Amino acid sequence: MPFVHVMTWPTKDENQIIRLQEDITFAVHKNTGAPLDKISVVVSEIQPSRWADAGVPGTDKDFPVKSRRKNYEE
Fold it and tell me: Does domain 3-67 have CATH number 3.30.429.10?
């Protein structure tokens, strides 16, 4: 049955993760009809140094801007 794996940066709010898991479970159930007890949701927290968007590591001080680049000339 459905298995959803979400990767995100660490959060300090455990309730945020719990709400995310519940919302994802509800969405999968609503859209697929899968029984609740057959839906698994796993959240993996990845350190920013192990994450990159557009080749820019999450620890870069300008990550929010640089990670949106479309080419290497920017």
Answer: yes
